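Worked Example 4.2. Read the sequence first, then its C-alpha coordinates.
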Amino acid sequence: MRGYVRVASSSSVLLARLAADLSRFAELHPDIEIDLQEQGSEGTLEMVRNKEADIGLFVGAFEAHSLVTFPFGGDRLILAVPRTHPLAHHDRLRFAAFVDQEFVTMGHNTAVRKVLMEQSRLLDRTPRIRVQVNSFEVMALMASQGLGVGILPEAAVLPVVDAYKLKIIQIDEPWASRNFLLCIRSVPELEPPTRRLMTFLLNP
Protein backbone atom coordinates (compact mmCIF):
# COMPACT_ATOMS: atom_id res chain seq x y z
CA MET A 1 0.00 0.00 0.00
CA ARG A 2 1.26 3.46 -0.91
CA GLY A 3 0.04 6.68 0.60
CA TYR A 4 0.49 9.69 2.82
CA VAL A 5 -0.85 10.26 6.35
CA ARG A 6 -0.74 13.52 8.30
CA VAL A 7 -0.37 12.99 12.04
CA ALA A 8 -0.49 15.64 14.78
CA SER A 9 0.58 14.73 18.29
CA SER A 10 1.32 16.26 21.65
CA SER A 11 4.88 15.92 22.94
CA SER A 12 3.71 13.77 25.84
CA VAL A 13 2.16 11.13 23.57
CA LEU A 14 5.22 11.14 21.30
CA LEU A 15 7.56 10.48 24.20
CA ALA A 16 5.47 7.89 25.96
CA ARG A 17 4.48 5.74 23.00
CA LEU A 18 3.89 7.20 19.55
CA ALA A 19 7.51 7.52 18.41
CA ALA A 20 8.12 3.81 18.97
CA ASP A 21 4.80 2.86 17.35
CA LEU A 22 5.53 4.93 14.24
CA SER A 23 8.97 3.35 13.94
CA ARG A 24 7.44 -0.14 13.87
CA PHE A 25 4.74 0.97 11.43
CA ALA A 26 7.35 2.46 9.08
CA GLU A 27 9.21 -0.86 8.99
CA LEU A 28 6.03 -2.72 8.04
CA HIS A 29 4.78 -0.11 5.57
CA PRO A 30 7.78 1.62 3.95
CA ASP A 31 5.62 3.06 1.14
CA ILE A 32 3.30 4.99 3.46
CA GLU A 33 4.76 8.42 4.17
CA ILE A 34 4.00 9.99 7.54
CA ASP A 35 3.95 13.77 7.97
CA LEU A 36 4.29 14.25 11.73
CA GLN A 37 3.53 17.60 13.37
CA GLU A 38 4.37 18.06 17.05
CA GLN A 39 1.77 20.31 18.71
CA GLY A 40 0.24 20.95 22.08
CA SER A 41 -2.93 18.94 22.74
CA GLU A 42 -5.12 21.92 21.87
CA GLY A 43 -3.22 22.55 18.65
CA THR A 44 -3.47 18.87 17.75
CA LEU A 45 -7.26 18.95 18.07
CA GLU A 46 -7.48 22.10 15.97
CA MET A 47 -5.37 20.57 13.20
CA VAL A 48 -7.69 17.54 12.99
CA ARG A 49 -10.83 19.71 13.07
CA ASN A 50 -9.42 21.98 10.34
CA LYS A 51 -8.46 18.98 8.16
CA GLU A 52 -4.77 19.80 8.51
CA ALA A 53 -4.16 16.39 10.10
CA ASP A 54 -5.79 13.02 9.51
CA ILE A 55 -5.02 11.55 12.94
CA GLY A 56 -4.42 13.36 16.22
CA LEU A 57 -2.96 12.09 19.49
CA PHE A 58 -3.56 14.20 22.60
CA VAL A 59 -3.83 14.24 26.38
CA GLY A 60 -7.35 13.47 27.57
CA ALA A 61 -7.62 16.61 29.71
CA PHE A 62 -8.81 18.44 26.58
CA GLU A 63 -12.32 18.17 25.11
CA ALA A 64 -12.50 16.64 21.62
CA HIS A 65 -16.09 17.85 21.01
CA SER A 66 -17.11 16.82 17.46
CA LEU A 67 -14.20 14.44 16.89
CA VAL A 68 -14.27 10.65 17.20
CA THR A 69 -11.87 9.42 19.90
CA PHE A 70 -10.28 6.12 20.95
CA PRO A 71 -8.24 5.30 24.11
CA PHE A 72 -4.48 5.33 23.51
CA GLY A 73 -2.83 4.50 26.83
CA GLY A 74 -1.41 7.17 29.10
CA ASP A 75 1.47 8.33 31.28
CA ARG A 76 2.28 9.82 34.67
CA LEU A 77 3.38 13.31 35.68
CA ILE A 78 6.17 13.73 38.21
CA LEU A 79 7.87 16.65 39.95
CA ALA A 80 11.51 17.27 38.96
CA VAL A 81 13.79 19.29 41.26
CA PRO A 82 17.57 19.69 41.60
CA ARG A 83 19.11 17.20 44.02
CA THR A 84 20.15 20.16 46.19
CA HIS A 85 16.58 21.52 46.43
CA PRO A 86 14.88 21.60 49.88
CA LEU A 87 12.16 19.27 48.53
CA ALA A 88 14.65 16.70 47.25
CA HIS A 89 14.51 14.56 50.40
CA HIS A 90 10.87 13.70 49.61
CA ASP A 91 9.89 10.74 47.44
CA ARG A 92 6.18 11.64 47.21
CA LEU A 93 4.30 14.92 47.69
CA ARG A 94 0.78 16.29 47.45
CA PHE A 95 0.42 19.30 45.14
CA ALA A 96 -0.36 21.59 48.08
CA ALA A 97 3.15 20.96 49.41
CA PHE A 98 4.83 22.58 46.40
CA VAL A 99 2.18 24.80 44.80
CA ASP A 100 3.93 27.92 46.14
CA GLN A 101 7.26 27.06 44.51
CA GLU A 102 8.48 28.88 41.39
CA PHE A 103 7.82 26.79 38.28
CA VAL A 104 9.41 26.09 34.94
CA THR A 105 6.61 25.19 32.54
CA MET A 106 5.51 24.77 28.95
CA GLY A 107 3.39 27.09 26.78
CA HIS A 108 -0.25 28.03 27.26
CA ASN A 109 -1.82 25.43 24.95
CA THR A 110 -0.10 22.42 26.51
CA ALA A 111 -1.60 19.84 28.85
CA VAL A 112 1.15 20.31 31.44
CA ARG A 113 0.48 24.03 31.65
CA LYS A 114 -3.27 23.42 31.79
CA VAL A 115 -3.05 21.07 34.77
CA LEU A 116 -0.76 23.46 36.65
CA MET A 117 -3.18 26.34 36.21
CA GLU A 118 -6.30 24.30 37.04
CA GLN A 119 -4.92 22.64 40.15
CA SER A 120 -3.47 25.93 41.44
CA ARG A 121 -6.87 27.58 41.00
CA LEU A 122 -8.54 24.82 43.00
CA LEU A 123 -6.19 25.65 45.87
CA ASP A 124 -6.91 29.37 45.42
CA ARG A 125 -3.33 30.01 44.30
CA THR A 126 -1.75 31.71 41.31
CA PRO A 127 1.26 29.71 40.15
CA ARG A 128 4.59 31.55 40.18
CA ILE A 129 5.92 30.85 36.69
CA ARG A 130 9.59 31.77 36.46
CA VAL A 131 10.46 30.38 33.02
CA GLN A 132 8.35 29.22 30.06
CA VAL A 133 9.98 26.93 27.49
CA ASN A 134 9.06 24.96 24.37
CA SER A 135 10.28 21.44 25.12
CA PHE A 136 10.39 18.99 28.00
CA GLU A 137 14.17 18.57 27.70
CA VAL A 138 14.75 22.31 28.10
CA MET A 139 12.21 22.34 30.92
CA ALA A 140 14.20 19.64 32.74
CA LEU A 141 17.44 21.54 32.09
CA MET A 142 16.03 24.78 33.49
CA ALA A 143 14.74 22.93 36.55
CA SER A 144 18.20 21.41 37.08
CA GLN A 145 19.68 24.92 37.10
CA GLY A 146 17.43 26.01 39.94
CA LEU A 147 15.15 28.24 37.85
CA GLY A 148 12.02 26.52 39.17
CA VAL A 149 10.56 23.10 39.82
CA GLY A 150 8.98 21.26 36.90
CA ILE A 151 5.90 19.09 36.48
CA LEU A 152 6.79 16.77 33.59
CA PRO A 153 5.89 13.41 32.08
CA GLU A 154 8.04 10.73 33.69
CA ALA A 155 9.14 9.51 30.24
CA ALA A 156 10.60 12.95 29.50
CA VAL A 157 12.71 13.06 32.65
CA LEU A 158 14.10 9.53 32.95
CA PRO A 159 16.60 9.84 30.04
CA VAL A 160 18.19 12.99 31.53
CA VAL A 161 17.74 12.53 35.28
CA ASP A 162 21.37 11.56 35.91
CA ALA A 163 22.95 13.95 33.40
CA TYR A 164 21.00 16.89 34.85
CA LYS A 165 21.32 15.70 38.48
CA LEU A 166 17.58 15.80 39.07
CA LYS A 167 15.47 14.23 41.80
CA ILE A 168 12.15 12.71 40.69
CA ILE A 169 9.32 13.09 43.19
CA GLN A 170 6.03 11.25 42.74
CA ILE A 171 2.98 13.55 42.73
CA ASP A 172 0.41 12.01 45.06
CA GLU A 173 -2.66 13.24 43.17
CA PRO A 174 -5.21 11.47 40.91
CA TRP A 175 -4.55 13.96 38.09
CA ALA A 176 -0.90 12.90 37.88
CA SER A 177 -2.05 9.78 36.00
CA ARG A 178 -3.13 10.89 32.54
CA ASN A 179 -5.02 9.23 29.69
CA PHE A 180 -4.17 9.67 26.01
CA LEU A 181 -6.67 9.66 23.15
CA LEU A 182 -6.46 9.17 19.40
CA CYS A 183 -8.86 11.31 17.40
CA ILE A 184 -10.15 11.49 13.83
CA ARG A 185 -12.95 13.44 12.15
CA SER A 186 -14.98 10.36 11.18
CA VAL A 187 -14.34 6.73 10.33
CA PRO A 188 -16.10 6.65 6.91
CA GLU A 189 -13.94 9.43 5.44
CA LEU A 190 -10.62 7.75 6.26
CA GLU A 191 -8.36 7.04 3.29
CA PRO A 192 -6.90 3.48 3.22
CA PRO A 193 -3.39 4.51 4.43
CA THR A 194 -4.90 6.49 7.31
CA ARG A 195 -7.16 3.58 8.23
CA ARG A 196 -4.16 1.23 8.13
CA LEU A 197 -2.15 3.48 10.47
CA MET A 198 -5.05 4.00 12.88
CA THR A 199 -5.70 0.24 13.05
CA PHE A 200 -2.03 -0.38 13.76
CA LEU A 201 -1.85 2.26 16.49
CA LEU A 202 -4.96 0.98 18.24
CA ASN A 203 -3.87 -2.68 17.95
CA PRO A 204 -0.08 -2.65 18.21
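Now turn to a second chain, presented in exactly the same format:
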Amino acid sequence: MSAMSSQLSQQLPNRFSPNYSYVFNFEQKFDYTMSQKWMFDKWHTAFYWVAIYMVLVFGGQSLMTTRDAYKLRKTLALWNVLLALFSIFGTFRTLPELVHVLKEFGFRHSVCSPSYVEQVKVSGYWTWLFALSKVPELGPYSSLIQSNH
Protein backbone atom coordinates (compact mmCIF):
# COMPACT_ATOMS: atom_id res chain seq x y z
CA MET A 1 0.00 0.00 0.00
CA SER A 2 1.38 3.40 -0.91
CA ALA A 3 2.10 6.06 1.70
CA MET A 4 -0.59 8.29 0.19
CA SER A 5 -3.34 5.69 0.37
CA SER A 6 -2.18 4.66 3.86
CA GLN A 7 -2.33 8.26 5.01
CA LEU A 8 -5.69 8.74 3.31
CA SER A 9 -7.13 5.61 4.93
CA GLN A 10 -5.95 6.81 8.35
CA GLN A 11 -7.55 10.20 7.84
CA LEU A 12 -10.84 9.01 6.38
CA PRO A 13 -11.48 5.40 7.44
CA ASN A 14 -15.29 5.72 7.48
CA ARG A 15 -15.52 7.40 4.08
CA PHE A 16 -14.23 4.38 2.13
CA SER A 17 -17.43 2.45 2.55
CA PRO A 18 -20.95 3.30 1.51
CA ASN A 19 -23.58 2.83 4.15
CA TYR A 20 -24.61 -0.77 3.48
CA SER A 21 -28.16 -1.33 4.65
CA TYR A 22 -27.31 -4.91 5.57
CA VAL A 23 -24.03 -6.77 6.04
CA PHE A 24 -24.20 -10.55 6.19
CA ASN A 25 -22.46 -12.30 9.06
CA PHE A 26 -20.06 -14.14 6.71
CA GLU A 27 -19.10 -10.81 5.12
CA GLN A 28 -18.50 -9.21 8.52
CA LYS A 29 -16.21 -12.10 9.52
CA PHE A 30 -14.05 -11.74 6.39
CA ASP A 31 -10.39 -11.28 7.29
CA TYR A 32 -8.46 -9.96 4.31
CA THR A 33 -5.08 -10.59 5.94
CA MET A 34 -5.90 -14.28 6.35
CA SER A 35 -7.18 -14.60 2.78
CA GLN A 36 -4.19 -12.66 1.46
CA LYS A 37 -1.80 -14.95 3.37
CA TRP A 38 -3.66 -18.00 2.02
CA MET A 39 -3.30 -16.68 -1.54
CA PHE A 40 0.41 -15.93 -1.06
CA ASP A 41 1.00 -19.37 0.47
CA LYS A 42 -0.89 -21.16 -2.32
CA TRP A 43 0.20 -19.20 -5.42
CA HIS A 44 2.23 -22.13 -6.73
CA THR A 45 -0.84 -24.37 -6.89
CA ALA A 46 -1.94 -22.38 -9.96
CA PHE A 47 0.63 -24.37 -11.92
CA TYR A 48 -1.00 -27.63 -10.80
CA TRP A 49 -4.44 -26.35 -11.83
CA VAL A 50 -3.11 -25.30 -15.22
CA ALA A 51 -1.49 -28.73 -15.69
CA ILE A 52 -4.72 -30.52 -14.73
CA TYR A 53 -6.69 -28.25 -17.05
CA MET A 54 -4.33 -28.94 -19.96
CA VAL A 55 -4.50 -32.70 -19.40
CA LEU A 56 -8.29 -32.59 -19.25
CA VAL A 57 -8.63 -30.43 -22.36
CA PHE A 58 -6.18 -32.25 -24.59
CA GLY A 59 -6.77 -35.68 -23.04
CA GLY A 60 -10.52 -35.16 -23.30
CA GLN A 61 -10.20 -34.05 -26.90
CA SER A 62 -8.18 -37.15 -27.74
CA LEU A 63 -10.58 -39.42 -25.85
CA MET A 64 -13.67 -37.93 -27.49
CA THR A 65 -12.49 -38.08 -31.12
CA THR A 66 -14.10 -41.49 -31.61
CA ARG A 67 -17.13 -40.99 -29.35
CA ASP A 68 -20.43 -39.18 -29.55
CA ALA A 69 -20.66 -35.85 -27.75
CA TYR A 70 -22.24 -35.89 -24.29
CA LYS A 71 -25.68 -34.35 -23.97
CA LEU A 72 -24.83 -31.65 -21.43
CA ARG A 73 -27.06 -28.80 -22.56
CA LYS A 74 -29.23 -28.78 -19.39
CA THR A 75 -26.26 -29.26 -17.06
CA LEU A 76 -24.30 -26.45 -18.71
CA ALA A 77 -27.38 -24.21 -18.72
CA LEU A 78 -27.79 -24.78 -14.96
CA TRP A 79 -24.07 -24.10 -14.45
CA ASN A 80 -24.35 -20.84 -16.41
CA VAL A 81 -27.45 -19.76 -14.46
CA LEU A 82 -25.62 -20.39 -11.17
CA LEU A 83 -22.58 -18.42 -12.38
CA ALA A 84 -24.83 -15.59 -13.53
CA LEU A 85 -26.60 -15.48 -10.15
CA PHE A 86 -23.24 -15.46 -8.35
CA SER A 87 -22.02 -12.61 -10.57
CA ILE A 88 -25.24 -10.62 -10.15
CA PHE A 89 -25.18 -10.98 -6.38
CA GLY A 90 -21.47 -10.08 -6.27
CA THR A 91 -22.16 -7.03 -8.43
CA PHE A 92 -24.97 -5.88 -6.12
CA ARG A 93 -22.62 -6.25 -3.15
CA THR A 94 -19.61 -4.44 -4.70
CA LEU A 95 -21.18 -1.83 -6.99
CA PRO A 96 -22.30 0.50 -4.15
CA GLU A 97 -18.72 0.81 -2.96
CA LEU A 98 -17.38 1.40 -6.47
CA VAL A 99 -19.89 4.20 -7.05
CA HIS A 100 -19.12 5.63 -3.61
CA VAL A 101 -15.34 5.56 -4.13
CA LEU A 102 -15.60 7.06 -7.61
CA LYS A 103 -17.78 9.86 -6.27
CA GLU A 104 -15.68 10.56 -3.15
CA PHE A 105 -12.12 9.88 -4.35
CA GLY A 106 -12.14 9.60 -8.13
CA PHE A 107 -11.08 7.07 -10.74
CA ARG A 108 -7.40 6.89 -9.77
CA HIS A 109 -8.22 5.85 -6.21
CA SER A 110 -10.75 3.26 -7.43
CA VAL A 111 -8.01 1.58 -9.48
CA CYS A 112 -4.85 2.17 -7.42
CA SER A 113 -5.96 1.86 -3.79
CA PRO A 114 -6.66 -1.49 -2.10
CA SER A 115 -9.14 0.16 0.28
CA TYR A 116 -11.88 -2.17 -0.96
CA VAL A 117 -10.03 -5.05 0.68
CA GLU A 118 -8.48 -3.30 3.64
CA GLN A 119 -11.35 -1.09 4.74
CA VAL A 120 -14.56 -2.67 3.43
CA LYS A 121 -15.22 -6.28 4.30
CA VAL A 122 -18.22 -6.65 1.99
CA SER A 123 -16.46 -5.90 -1.29
CA GLY A 124 -13.23 -7.51 -0.05
CA TYR A 125 -15.10 -10.76 0.54
CA TRP A 126 -16.86 -10.72 -2.84
CA THR A 127 -13.69 -9.79 -4.70
CA TRP A 128 -11.88 -12.70 -3.07
CA LEU A 129 -14.73 -15.09 -3.97
CA PHE A 130 -14.70 -13.79 -7.54
CA ALA A 131 -10.98 -14.58 -7.85
CA LEU A 132 -11.50 -18.06 -6.42
CA SER A 133 -14.48 -18.71 -8.71
CA LYS A 134 -12.23 -18.65 -11.77
CA VAL A 135 -10.90 -22.15 -10.99
CA PRO A 136 -14.20 -24.08 -11.15
CA GLU A 137 -15.33 -21.97 -14.11
CA LEU A 138 -12.69 -23.61 -16.26
CA GLY A 139 -14.10 -27.13 -15.87
CA PRO A 140 -17.39 -27.17 -17.76
CA TYR A 141 -16.10 -24.93 -20.51
CA SER A 142 -13.27 -27.28 -21.39
CA SER A 143 -15.84 -30.02 -22.05
CA LEU A 144 -18.00 -27.57 -24.02
CA ILE A 145 -15.06 -26.61 -26.20
CA GLN A 146 -14.34 -30.25 -26.92
CA SER A 147 -17.92 -31.12 -27.84
CA ASN A 148 -18.13 -28.26 -30.38
CA HIS A 149 -14.99 -29.23 -32.33
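Notes for the reader: Confidence is low (pLDDT under 50) at residues 1-13, 142-149. The first helix runs from residue 3 to 11.
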